[in-house]
Design goal:
PyrdxlP-dep_Trfase, Aspartate Aminotransferase, domain 1, transaminase activity, pyridoxal phosphate binding, 13-stranded mixed sheet, aminotransferase, 27 helices, alpha+beta, Aminopeptidase, Aspartate Aminotransferase, domain 2, transferase, seven-stranded mixed sheet
Length: 806
């Protein structure tokens, strides 16, 4: 299998966060000598604080602060010993109060992250299985994925999709003892909640089902004694539910709590829970503050605080109802999410609100899909009526301005969040003088014009695209029917600024995933052939490789032309309801990368492109001297001595029997190349290649003396396209793997391609993607490539992450 580098998820997140940081909306520092909770000082300006997760404002309560200061005075800043040996004097009191609070056995942890890492591996036993809601907090997912090393199955479902959950339960029920479904009680971005009633009904239906619920965002502001949203719905904790919540955020102190009514499971976790044993214990100040907060939670005062917050939440909901702001989820949680769609609009909106005197959070990938960027407004008891009204007024005014600044409309955003549209007036052109050419067949575009812009680059000059249009239509299998879409953007003088084409086709979503993921998915596809496949609106086509975008960067409007192209693509995306949009085969250009990200795309690594950019030698005899010293040695050792073993045929008109042979060789490679996992191309393609003047088959036959028992059977074939007498493009390859190693078939095919292109007088060779190490040896220049993807949601990306190394 070809080895290619795959995109590192953390690298993608780093780029997204770096862009947000440069826009001044992330990784900020609060300033000032004191903090009250109502305002926060940022960049030397006092802002009303609508970004806290301390919804009840207890972090500023004098009783908690006094208890913390008193504990430091008595016990010091920390108690540097593992709890496995001894806990400091205040710990027992805290444990007793928290147990009283929940009326169930509890375990105090340093924080919720360490809580998950300690509790999940202890609670989930070998022979159990895990199902993750794909929006469950990242720390839960990270802890769950640790169990793959113990061969615990880890599956994932779409957010709150109970049909999908039940289907997973049925499949796992015969294989596993217990099935753990892991979800949040209240989700941190949109403020939506887990369907707890339905989940408990599933538990009744399937006794194997256990729930692991992270309720850190539901704590204190909801439930009896402020025990959170989950217990407000369940009333008491069943043995098959394990609850993780927090003493931080709304509780006003530090630490987290695991609540477990299953005695044996509780004992196991508490006795040895990994980091629960080895990590440092909570500092005396944190424990003392938590005790003070627990006293408030155990008193009637907690309901007064909850009601005060609820009044503010209700008011804010009422204020928003009087606007057209796109509130993504309406309920009684103190978390509100206003969608902006594209990151660039989100940056603009956040900065505008900060200048107006309001601090809010940006919701950004990976917490939400890139195209579902928005602002998260959180309401706390610190917020007063006047600033809440002021924030809503500011949002109404600046939301429209942010959209205008970034060439977006309210209905565009609403469509991204699947919300009812306002039926607004058509959007104005970005530049009145732009002329946009859009066609669905290359036949409606002048051959000379297209070839001047997009010719000489691969198998997608005018004739190459007409060929592909004829091949990929009226086929039986859905993956072999493509729609073509051509876009040319010109200025007022009809000078082209941009040209490209897209295809709408069915892709395997793991096309660029690690091999380990594709192997697992192909096993599933033996029973379900179209599992994890999606209709994709992709630049270029699944067949072609190369520079699919003509862009005149010397033109003053080139960036606006990109935006105009993306608007047209979005229009097509909504028309087709496609799941993914892919812009592909770009060199790593910082300006383009930033522009695409701000328009809702994330960058992913493509396989390197391999090209011989200049066939400057006059004859093939001169070719070895053009190679590097190392490559020349490789040529003399692994290529030249094997050439005599083969008969080379350039086949322009093949018989049906020969096409069958060539297709079998191609299929061998396709099945073996999961590093670039694509649907197999139809035999119709190769039949039509044999009839087209621009295609030829470069075929290797082993001579009789090297092929005992088999005569005139091809062992290798290169399917080559001749582009405008300029670029020779070996688009696909086929091989018989029984002969590959012994006779160096692959290397010989590469060399014979160079030889043929030289003889025909071509200027360059486009070797395509993968196997860059081998192609470099024959003189190819290796060009790193990237693509940019935009998905409706993060489910597939996260699911494949769960499957990796499973």
């Amino acid at each position: 299998m070809a080895k290619i580098k795959h995109n590192n998820f953390l690298d993608t997140v780093n780029e997204v966060f770096t862009d947000a940081k440069e826009q001044g909306v992330l990784h900020l520092y609060a300033e000032g000598d004191s903090f009250t909770g109502r305002k926060i000082r940022v960049k030397q300006k006092d802002l009303f604080h609508f970004g806290t997760t301390g919804y009840l404002g207890l972090e500023q309560d004098k009783r908690l602060k006094g208890a913390a200061m008193n504990a430091i005075d008595k016990y010091g800043t920390q108690f540097p010993l593992s709890k496995a040996y001894i806990s400091h004097p205040l710990y027992r009191k805290l444990e007793e109060k928290i147990t009283e609070l929940f009326n169930a056995p509890t375990i105090i942890t340093k924080n919720s992250t360490l809580g998950h890492i300690g509790v999940i591996p202890s609670a989930v036993e070998d022979g159990d299985a895990i199902i993750l809601d794909h929006q469950v907090h990242w720390t839960v997912q990270s802890a769950a994925n640790m169990l793959k090393t113990r061969s615990v199955p880890v599956e994932m479902i779409r957010h709150n999709n109970l049909d999908m959950l039940e289907d997973k339960i049925k499949k796992l029920s015969t294989k596993c003892k217990r099935i753990w479904y892991m979800a949040d009680g209240v989700y941190s971005m949109y403020g939506d909640v887990a369907p707890l009633g339905e989940l408990m009904a599933l538990c009744d239906k399937y006794p194997q089902l256990h729930l692991y619920l992270d309720d850190v965002h539901g704590m204190s502001w909801s439930g009896k004694n402020g025990t959170g949203y989950v217990l407000s719905k369940l009333n008491e904790l069943p043995e098959n539910v394990l609850l993780i919540t927090t003493l931080s955020k709304t509780f006003g102190a530090s630490g987290a709590v695991a609540v477990c009514n299953h005695k044996k499971r509780h004992h196991k976790i508490k006795t040895f829970g990994g980091p629960l044993t080895f990590s440092a214990q909570l500092e005396p100040a944190s424990v003392a503050a938590a005790i003070a907060s627990a006293d408030i939670h155990l008193s009637p005062e907690i309901y007064m605080l909850q009601n005060e917050l609820l009044e503010r939440v209700t008011l804010f909901n009422t204020l928003l109802e009087e606007t057209d702001l796109p509130l993504v989820e309406k309920n009684n949680s103190p978390v509100f999410y206003i969608g902006t769609g594209m990151p660039v609009t989100g940056y603009n909106f956040v900065n505008r609100l900060m200048k107006e005197g309001f601090f809010v959070n940006l919701g950004i990938f990976p917490a939400v899909p890139v195209k579902n960027t928005g602002i998260r407004v959180t309401i706390s008891r610190h917020n007063q009526v006047e600033e809440m009204k002021g924030l809503v007024d500011a949002m109404v005014y600046h939301y429209q301005k942010a959209l205008e600044d970034t060439h977006a409309t309210p209905d565009q955003v609403r469509k991204m969040f699947k919300m009812p549209v306002l039926n607004e007036l058509p959007k104005k052109k970005i530049v009145d003088d732009f002329h946009i050419v859009y066609e669905e067949t290359i036949q409606n575009i002048g051959k000379e014009e297209w070839n001047n812009l997009m010719g000489k680059k691969g198998a997608f000059d005018w004739d190459g695209l007409l060929f592909l249009e004829n091949v990929f239509k009226n086929n039986k299998r859905p993956e072999n029917n493509w729609d073509f879409h051509y876009i040319i953007i010109k200025d007022a003088k009809s000078v082209p600024i941009l040209a490209t084409f897209f295809t709408y086709a069915l892709w395997k979503e793991d096309m660029l995933a690690p091999i380990s993921v594709s192997i697992k998915l192909e096993e599933i596809r033996k029973e379900d052939p179209y599992y994890l496949t999606s209709k994709v609106l992709g630049m270029g086509s699944p067949f072609t490789e190369g520079e699919h975008l003509y862009l005149d960067k010397s033109h003053p409007y080139w960036e606006l032309a990109i935006k105009q192209m993306l608007d047209k693509v979005e229009e097509l995306e909504q028309q087709f309801n496609s799941n993914w949009v892919v812009l592909r085969d770009f060199e790593n250009e910082e300006k383009l990368s930033q522009l695409f990200h701000q328009q809702g795309f994330i960058k992913t690594v493509m396989p390197d492109s391999c090209q011989i950019l200049d066939l400057h030698w006059k004859t093939i005899e001169e070719y070895p001297e053009a190679l590097s010293t190392r490559s020349r040695k490789h040529f003399k050792k692994d290529i030249q001595p094997y050439e005599e073993r083969f008969k080379v045929v350039y086949n322009n008109k093949s018989t049906p029997k020969q096409i069958d042979q060539f297709y079998e060789l191609y299929s061998n490679v396709n099945k073996n190349n999961l590093a670039l996992n694509m649907f197999p191309l139809p035999k119709k393609l190769f039949t039509m290649m044999a009839k087209h003047p621009n295609w030829e088959f470069l075929v290797l036959y082993l001579k009789k003396e090297y092929n005992v028992g088999r005569s005139h059977i091809p062992v290798g074939v290169m399917f080559c396209y001749k582009n405008l007498e300029h670029t020779y493009t070996p688009a696909f390859i086929g091989m018989d793997y029984d002969y590959t190693d012994e006779h160096q078939v692959y290397r010989q095919l590469l060399y014979q391609t160079v030889k043929r292109a030289t003889e025909l007088g071509f200027k360059q060779i486009d070797f395509g993607m993968t196997a860059s190490f081998e192609k470099k040896k024959v003189g190819a220049t290796i060009i790193p490539k990237t693509s940019y993807i935009q998905a409706k949601d993060n489910f597939s990306l996260e699911l494949m992450g769960v499957m990796q190394n499973k």
